[in-house]
Amino acid sequence: MSDHLAHVADTTTTEPRTAGSRDNRLSGALVMALRVLLCLVFGLPLVFMIVSSFKPDTQIFADLASWSAFLPVGDVSLANYTGLMDRVPFVTFMVNSVFISVCTVVLGLLVNSMAAFALSRIEFRGQKVVLGIVLATLIVPFETMALPLLWWVNTIPYFDGSQGWLDTYAVQIIPFLANAFSIYLFYQYFDSIPKELDEAATVDGAGWFRIYRSIVMPLSGPAVATVAILTFLPAWNSYLWPLMVVQSESLRPVMVGIDYFKQATGSSGTAWGQIMAYATMITVPVLALFIGFQRAFINSIASSGVKG
Amino acid sequence: MLKRTARLLATTFVAASLTLSVTACSKGGATSTQAASGGTQTLTLWTHNAGNKGELAAIQSVVDDYNASQTAYKVDLQAFPQDSYNQSVVAAAAAKKLPCILDIDQPNVANWAWAGYLAPIEGMDDILSKYLPSTVAKWNGKTYAYGYYDVSLTWVTRESILKKYGIRVPTIDQPWTGEEFASALAKVKASGDFTYPADLATGWTGEWWPYGYSPFLQSFGGDLINRTDFSSAEGVLNGDAAVKWGEWFQGLAKDGMISKKSSADPTADFINGKTAFLWNGSWTAVPVREKVKDVVFAPPVDFGDGPKVGGGSWTWGYSTGCASPEGALDYLKFAAQDKYVAKVAKDTNNIPTTDAAAAMVPGFEPGGENDVFRQYSKKFTVMRPETPGYPFLATAFTKGAQDILNGADVKKTLDQMVADIDDNQKANNFFQQ
């Protein structure tokens, strides 16, 4: 409050302003203008998506030439939402995506943190070489591994003894548990935790797993949050892999559902309004999650050293 | 509060997980349904119609009728979204998990047959002789697939526009000539009444470019490849006729007659009055008729070698991996009946492949409002080259045509397209089996 009063007093003074304060105000205004511009650049596509989800296709395109594209004007209704439910088994896809994403995050946290713990804490021959190999895999894009991975998951036996993992939940989860970037993040964070804590615990009779579970992991909250978010997003957005390995509609995730609205031929054409409605329905939960945990996310990124 | 929310989320997830975990370790039905069960052989059928309610329901009704008609086989339908259907099929082929029966976009049939995905259909020559030739997919002298319907390209415009600018209403026997069309575009352009006089749907990607624009090239007298032996594009894709086509195509954009990249929905733009002439498929008839009462579906323009439209749409065949080829053929024969052709064509508003079926579909009967598309298809169709190299041809043509539209040197670009296509042919040993 006192700062506010001081500011008011300052702005109402009759003394001539210095060139420095004018410069500060100008740069402040420029920074604010830049912020507003960035908000518009990043926010308007989302506004367009949400607003268009309430409009019929012809109106979406008619409005494109003006700011009406970003306003809920004209023939606004929930028809696209009711229409999409008729076209796509939305609930099934949503439940599948939540299940796959959460399993990938939870199991991924376990696998990657354990791998990083071993690399950071347990001394063994070739430790640095293993870390180097893990890091080297970061430069291989998924698209180049997709076909070999397909061959692999189609060749190995499944839990029930049959050959291949195609058309299962497991094939959408297990190949993505071990992640080099996550291992590196955990490794980096674990390295910053004093090793004296391990030694003290060892003196008290704790084994490696106890040290991992009771000392290192409880101190690694920011790293866990970062890895959780960075694992969740690609799992949620997964598109190419499910196309290749899942044939049953009952096992498909939400992203594949987008294709249900695009028909190259036929009287239905591409249902743009329904695509926007579907995109809104699959984006809003993630957006709400992000906004809800915004502070924790930013804190975790800042403290775990992931900066772009 | 945050902890309570987290606990609630965790509880919900655990409950959902318990439910899902019952099925988490079990497999979906798609790839394991070709085993015999109780004397009935199950045949998996894949279709590209997920999300396309009308066509999916029609195909499902054919399957239901077949399953009810006999007990030896049970066909199990799996629907995939069209936009990613080819990736799913190619991935399944790589994993040797192709379904028994599948639908195939006609231009891909030769390539998939050459790659060993498809088996030839035998014993259906009599039935398929009644089909439009463009709906029977052949390669190397064998039939690999047949389709229920075809689509046709058409110029969409309004009678009021033609009247206002003094443009002749074209007919199937007397389509516009190249000069007439150029004059029509110029008149509309001079009026300033439209954002662009014409829309060629240049914002669409993929196979639309060769499907939509190679008929122009063929009408000028060029082609995508020399069809005598399908081994080279030299002379047909970079000859004088092709250069004329390229200059005309580039000129449309240069003179402001079309947009270099039209919107994602050119039909909506036409309906909204942004364009006067729309180059599109017969599939656009239903949405346009709903909004435009004086619509005219004009035949393709004759640029010298006759009006041309592309041929072929979705077709049905069976895979080499099918455990029961006799069952697949039995289904394909059953499904080829006129009543099913009529049903699928009716539910998709596409051109029925047989005369008998056309008579059953309102609008496609002789003289019906959609009969014009059937006549265009019968009279003007040029099949996309039936060669395994077509997917590469399509990609090379798309890239070259986009470069030309964006101002690249026409002759050099066409020469480069020919070089790329010929290299691909050689690299694949001219797709010899």
The H-and-E topology of chain A, N to C, reads as: HHHHHHHHHHHHHHHH
- Average pLDDT of chain B works out at 92
Low-confidence stretches of chain B: none
How far is the first residue's CA from the last residue's CA of chain A?
A: 36 Å
Short description:
The complex is a heterodimer of chains A (308) and B (433). With 308 residues, chain A is an all-alpha fold.
Description:
The complex is a heterodimer of chains A (308) and B (433). By secondary structure, chain A is an all-alpha fold. Chain A folds into two domains: 15-73; 88-261, MetI-like (MetI-like fold), CATH 1.10.3720.10. Chain A has 16 helices and no strands. Chain A is flat, with a radius of gyration of 26 Å. Chain B is α/β, with parallel strands linked by helices and 433 residues long. Chain B has two domains: 36-150 and 312-383, Periplasmic binding protein-like II (D-Maltodextrin-Binding Protein, domain 2), CATH 3.40.190.10; 153-310 and 389-431, Periplasmic binding protein-like II (D-Maltodextrin-Binding Protein, domain 2), CATH 3.40.190. Chain B has 17 helices and 16 strands. Chain B has helices at residues 2-24, 53-69, 85-94, 109-114, 125-128, 159-164, 178-191, 208-220, 240-254, 266-271, 285-291, 325-335, 338-348, 355-360, 371-380, 390-405, 410-427; strands at 36-37, 40-50, 73-81, 101-105, 118-119, 136-139, 142-146, 149-150, 153-158, 196-199, 275-281, 295-298, 309-311, 314-319, 351-352, 381-383. In chain B, strands 1, 2, 3, 4, 5 and 14 form a six-stranded mixed beta sheet that branches. In chain B, helix 2 packs antiparallel against helix 13 and helix 8 (208-220) crosses helix 16. Chain B starts with a helix and ends in a 6-residue tail after the last helix. In chain B, 52% of the residues are buried.
